[in-house]
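Fig. S4 source data, part A: sequence.
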Amino acid sequence: MKPSFQLAAIACALSLAIAGCSQSNQSTTNTNNQQQVQTVKQYDAETFFDTTSIMGSSFSPKSDKVLISSDESGIYSLYEVDIKTAKKTRLTDFEDSTYAVAYFPNDERVLFTKDSGGNERYHIYVRETDGTVKDLTPGEETRAGFAGFTEDGKHFFITSNQRDAKFMDLYRVDANSYEVTPVYQNTMGLDVGAISPDGRFIALSKNNSNKDSDVFILDTRKKTLKPELITRHDNDAKYSPETFSRDSKSLYYSTDAKGEFAEIWRYDLTTSEHSPALKDEWDVSFIYFSKSGRYQVSGVNADASTKVSIIDTTTGKGIAMPSLPAGNLRGVNFSADEKTMAFYLNSDTSPSNLFVWQLGESKAKQLTNTLSDAIDQNDLVESTIVRFKSFDGLEIPGVLYKPKQANSNNKVPALVWVHGGPGGQSRTGYSAMQQHLVNHGYAIFAVNNRGSSGYGKTFFHLDDKKHGTDDLQDIVYGKKHLQSLDWVDADKIGIMGGSYGGFMTAAALAFEPEEFKVGINIFGVTNWVRTLNSIPPWWESFKKALYDEMGDPATDGERHRAISPLFHAKNITKPLMVIQGANDPRVLQVESDELVAAVKANGVPVDYVLFDDEGHGFTKKENRIKASNAYLEFLNTYLDK
């Protein structure tokens, strides 16, 4: 950073403000030829990650508490929040993060999931009312998932690959005795998508390619237990089950068969009739219903933000929400009696906060305050959606964060951020890591290169088997867009990203060595030949779709080698940072080890941070803090010097 920043940082480090120091940077702006001074407070990573991340909104049977997962202790643990007092009671205390599933419908037992050290082999656990915990899906190699309760609460469903590591079978579990009964042995590579409230119908999906999928219905009352295809079609189209109607008479499914974007259609289980249910100018991301079916909740992925609608199905009209702080709704859930609604609000400058609302009342009650008390929300930055033309004239969208201290008289360094995937999307919403860097004077441009989801199926498939080429040029042209902004230092632009974005970071340094000054690769693929031959066994059901996207290693090995940064590491001449979890089942540690060694052999500065207790993504707050501090120190050293 600039000398004034460095001096302030030293003074901050020497201070006794343990809750999180702040520093000020004064920048000037010109308005009518007059200088105006803006003071920007800066906070350290510890303060940004003093922010609490929470998720989950399951109501207790009496509707007096909400079950959430919160990382306020340093890892995600289960808490129940009293609706009247907002008091939180911690329910789990493990070395690994635990994630809330739901209360049992008729008592206050709790279901939750947990893996081991980030290995993604999640098990289903029950926490009894006396606090004891039982693993319902034991086995070192087992991976399990929750699939829903029956309407009467007497049973619930789980999926598990215990029989065959490649396929998830479906089981019914007695909610009292925990006796497990097989329901469907998955030999076709299908995925369970939804189960009717009465437990009779199972909706399953099958990936035929990355452009084409089908939905099947399994009627458990038929002796054959043979899934029936309900989405016969001639042209490539994606079909995916969403939810059943509460009377178990209809299935709602998503499809892009009718146009560029996903719509919701309804399938009548008695007449086999298909009919349109919901469409928008963007992808309809989800749909579900309250317990009786009175309230319909749906979400639309509108230009990188989720817009939630809540409809009263008795009137067909949206419910009149109370006045709320700025932000987007998410995690909407209704109590069993449908008198109370729980939901989250999230924005670029505010992490998710939990609210409850008694339907019809004029005000909602905020149960959490997740932003650190030491941070003034006004010091944080709201994003803007920006579009630019790529090398071939294609319009590329992105999410841009402009530091408060940036202007034409005080140009700032910048980073192109690349999302994961392939096929992911950078979206609006709070990120402690990104806000930390922006707060310290680094612009971030999260480019949604071709192949990103959310912009139609044509855009999504433009990078099929073109990874590291056309999509990389979108990233390069995103950098060129940053250089056109009069508040960006055109000579100080780096690149960073996680997972697929980590691959793109390493690829940019290897194949476009003069474009970016530095790169931060966060558990990114560096050797596609190895990665595509070592995917986790439970990816079997969508392996074909992955190969359609990336190429089959049996036939496309030469291309995979050509786009793999590891085999071209001799070209990397700019400083590199690599972050890796030792337990990552997707991008193996050896990927990062070999890249680091190869780049060091070039005499290029390389910083390597390895977390022994993490996988593909960092769940422990202390590790997220360490990573964010490492990012900033690296950038201060090599980008803004």
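Fig. S4 source data, part B ends here. The radius of gyration is 25 Å.
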